[in-house]
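Notebook entry, structure prediction.
Reason for the run: the old model in the group folder had no record of what sequence produced it. Starting over properly, with the input documented here first.
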Amino acid sequence: MELQTSKFARTTPSSKLLPTFDLSNLYLQTMNLSNIKTPGVYINEINAFPNSVVPVATAVPAFIGYTPQAMYEGKSYTNVVQKITSFADFMAIYGYPDPPAPAEAAKQYSPQYYLVPQKSHPVKGAYIEINSTYYSIVPDCNTIYYLYNSIRLFYQNGGGDAYIVSVGTYGSPSGVPGIPGAQMINPNVILNDLLDGLALLRNEQEPTMYICPEATLLSVADNGTLMQAMLLQCTEMQTAISIFDIIGGDAPDPILYTNDIATFRDNTGVQGLNYGTAYYPFVGTTMMQQQDMDYRNLFGGDVDALAGLLNAAADPILSAIFSQIKSGLFTPSQNDNALRIASRDYPIICKAVLGMINLLPASGGMAGVMTTIDSQVGVWEAPANTAIVGVISLPIKLSDSQQGNLNVDAVTGKSINAIRFFNGIGILVWGARTLDGNSNDWRYLSVRRTMTFLEQSCKLAAQAYVFQPNDKNTWEAVKAMIGSFLTSVWKEGGLQGASAADAFSVDCGLGSTMTGDDLLNGFMNVAVKVAVVHPAEFIVITFQQQMAQS
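New structure, fully documented this time:
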């Protein structure tokens, strides 16, 4: 049925002419039928439900560093931001391809270690005693990298989607051991390479964590420059946090480890601290097994040096085995098994070296822990009081008093999360703070990550209303959309409050969040207040004696 008003003008007692309205034209425009010319039946669908907020991903790390290779199907992936969903994806692009059978699988990571004899008991660094002689176990620093095993640790702890930025492949070994007890600096790890890889992530909105495991292989100054750049980028993008490791965390001095902590705090700057978090110390893992290393990881592959250490000249069986190694008649694994059987000292050496290889920065494992907690509970659950799968030892066992200086610092306010060993329980993550430890707003890591989650989810959903009329209908639609999303978060436990009204509020409108000038300038301001859940970091139980009563 078509509705029409009279085509004749109406007059008022004052004889003023009023405009006439053709409701039929308005009806056709509303129904979007103005172009219909052919007789028939037409359907016009009207959206019954408003737009909704789709929660963004909360645990998508971006790893920056050096990989075994970066090639897939003839295409180079060096300095390319690439998303992966599993460790198999990582190996397909960044791992060495295995040679055809019956050859052994390719070694993806092959660090070199030397045993340097010492005149007395070593004061610093790892060592081993063989035939009443102390030997310091020292790496060729040019061969040490952390990214490959950090990716393995990430997926062992429940990792999922991740981004990889390979800034290069492994460099050439130096052929000489480092200085026992000195900071490990790899000249092949270059600051500008890592900064360029970090800059590539400016075009990616999905990553929520920046991790650079090999940052601790830089000098102290370069490490500080990189950390400050990561925090600055996190502040500008407001989508990710940075997870840091601390130089010296691999071999902390029982007394002077506080110097490493002070150096770290001095070099992180003051910008964007609420977007950063740090973990201490390194963790001893099980990423690489016995079959992943052999005599080729010792003395730069110099079998004569190893034969001299094992005194093979005095043992005909060992002498024969080393002759077989030089002849190349047997595979490395066969030669390695023969050495383990024939020599008493060789398995001890391999175990000690393997322990050093498996000493890794904790950042990769923490990314996996956060991924697991986010999927099982939510981003508002603090990633603490939980274990890191694959971690079996720590280079230092911190006490309560020692952790107190890490967790709360009155001067800098830069909190550091400790990984500790507890008798009868094991190794636990025992800290949940950002670097902005003295801030009431951003002290806790779960609060920072929850706010990022809420902000980015609402931001992406609100893009549907860009260029919409800045009127009450739009304001109410946005308020309803964000309110519905926050209600679901509150029901899941992400916001505190006895009711939804106690947990959050959403305001948008002229006179409350906007002025007339805002409307003229095209601004629609939405004010959202949320009561985020804070972790119970300190639980105080008060006991008092009570008099006996009848």
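Summary: Confidence is low (pLDDT under 50) at residues 1-30.
The old model has been moved to the deprecated folder.
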